[in-house]
User: What shape does this take?
Amino acid sequence: MKRSFIALGVVCLLGISPVMADHLKDRLSGMLNEKDDTPGMVNLNGLGMGAGRPAKPVSRSAKAVVATVNGKKILKKEADAYLSERTKGKVKDFDLLPNKQRLALIKEMSLPLVLAQEAQKKLSKEEENAVFSRLWMQKKAADLNVSNEAIAQAYEKIKARAKAQSALAQVPPLEKIKERIKMQIAEQQIVKDLMRGVQVRVEPNSDTVAGYAGMMAISVDDVNKALQMMTKGKATWATLPPQDKVRVLEMVAPRQMIALAANNQLSKAQKENALTNYWMQKQLANVSVSDDEVKKRYAKIKKRLAKSKKKLPPLEKLAPALKLELAKEKLVSDLMKHARIKLMK
Assistant: This one.
């Protein structure tokens, strides 16, 4: 087996591009607070001010179930908290709202839940582990201090390797790839710390367990998936020479250790947000938005700003953002149409 094969990094085994750090609620907050009558969005302007309020509203206990969303219970204290945040403290009791506005509020606050449920249902276990691992690595890397000197030294090594391969090789300026180099150095340090004192050994007497990293078993299936990625199907655990098996396990073990640490250390909310963001990115790539739809949205914004002094950038500059916004709205609208939302009396 060639040395270049063994030299492949742990990061490539994570299997996905970096997950965006922003949370779903932050990403969608602009959409939810729009006064526009966009399909799939709800309008809560004037909450608690409309007609239809009961003459003598009865406020239920904080633990009362006020609604269900795809079978998941929503407690009154959760609805009250969201209502208070949504109205900036002007209305704090969900039971004071008319039924129509109660339903609107539940639909709005249930959006992240519906998206999270869909993501958990559609993503594979491998994708979940990759998403959690990437997020955990990003959080750990953010806490590490990587010096400019270390980055400069790594950059010089990159240039030297590139020139060794080809005299005409071009390496981007340091400033353009500085953050990427910094992340690589941080990840190498994280893996080094994680694997310190961990013994990796082959299990010769099993058809299902390839080996162990400390007390953690590494399955043959997991090793074969990694080999499929690294060698494009040219090697399997069964065909590896004995002298290469330990080195392959040493490459796979960090990935397994990272996944274990991520599952144990990330909170439930962090996991749900990460999965939802990743699933949204995948789904948005498949949502079709026409040029006419983008032009209509642009014209609508232009009309809305006609009497103000705000200057609207040209269509060609706003088109990508408008297209993404429309795609999000379509995806959200379709999901909410199929969500089973029930108010409890």
About this structure: The two ends are 68 Å apart (CA to CA). The chain has one domain: 1-142+199-303+312-345. The first helix runs from residue 3 to 6. The beta strands are 65-69, 72-75, 200-202, 209-213, 216-219, 341-343.
